[in-house]
Design brief:
With 149 residues, the protein is α+β, with helices and mostly antiparallel strands. The chain has a single domain (3-146), classed as ph1033 like fold. The protein is 19% helix and 34% strand. It has four helices and six strands; from the N terminus they run βαβαβββαβα. The protein has helices at residues 15-21, 32-39, 111-115, 139-146; strands spanning 3-8, 23-26, 46-51, 58-71, 95-110, 134-137. The longest helix is centred in the N-terminal third of the chain and has 8 residues, at 32-39. It binds a DNA duplex (12 and 12 nucleotides) through loops. Residues 2-147 form the EVE domain. This is EVE domain-containing protein. It holds the Pfam family EVE.
DNA sequence: GCCAACGTTGGC
DNA sequence: GCCAACGTTGGC
């Protein structure tokens, strides 16, 4: 089983929102590197749910992959914010996965705190200038973060 | 293939 | 709202 971290703006989908829904489609990823990581995910993989572009950026919970990558329908929907005019049903370059809520953390693990952990220096999240929204997390990094809860 | 211009991300 | 950093686009 692999570990990941994925960013979401809580206004779009928060860990609390996922908790209410139980399950959700993780769509709208429009970066090739992030998409490739989505495609590498397997059912059962777990990921840290990160809240970005909000008053308290940080890891807010844990969730699980329940469906492996499939064509992202929002790319074909002209009404969608994530519509891609160049995508077609036959050639849709974008992928989505389905996820399920596992755990909402009692307190958000704030970005500033994560940056202080020496064991996380290699994590793209804490690196200057990194905007990657889907990234792998090593078992060692996972353990460091889980211990902060 | 280079690179300037532009759009986006995301913390602050 | 600001702005640094990054990714993408498109002319040449």
């Amino acid at each position: 089983m692999a570990y990941w971290l994925m960013k979401s703006e809580p206004d779009e989908l928060s860990i609390e929102g996922l908790g209410r829904l139980g399950e959700a489609r993780w769509d709208g990823v429009r970066n090739y590197q992030a998409r490739n990581f989505l495609r590498a995910m397997n059912v059962g993989d777990e990921f840290f749910f990160y809240h970005s572009s909000c008053p308290q950026p940080g890891i807010a919970g844990i969730a699980r992959i329940i469906r492996a990558a499939y064509p992202d329908p929002t790319a074909l929907d002209p009404q969608s914010h994530y519509y891609d005019a160049k995508a077609t049903a036959d050639k849709n370059p974008w992928s989505a996965v389905d996820v399920a809520h596992v755990q909402t953390l009692p307190r958000v693990l704030e970005l500033g705190r994560l940056k202080q952990q020496s064991g996380l220096a290699e994590l793209p999240l804490v690196q200057k200038g990194s905007r990657l929204s889907v990234m792998p997390v090593t078992p060692e990094q996972w353990a460091v973060i889980v211990a902060l809860r």
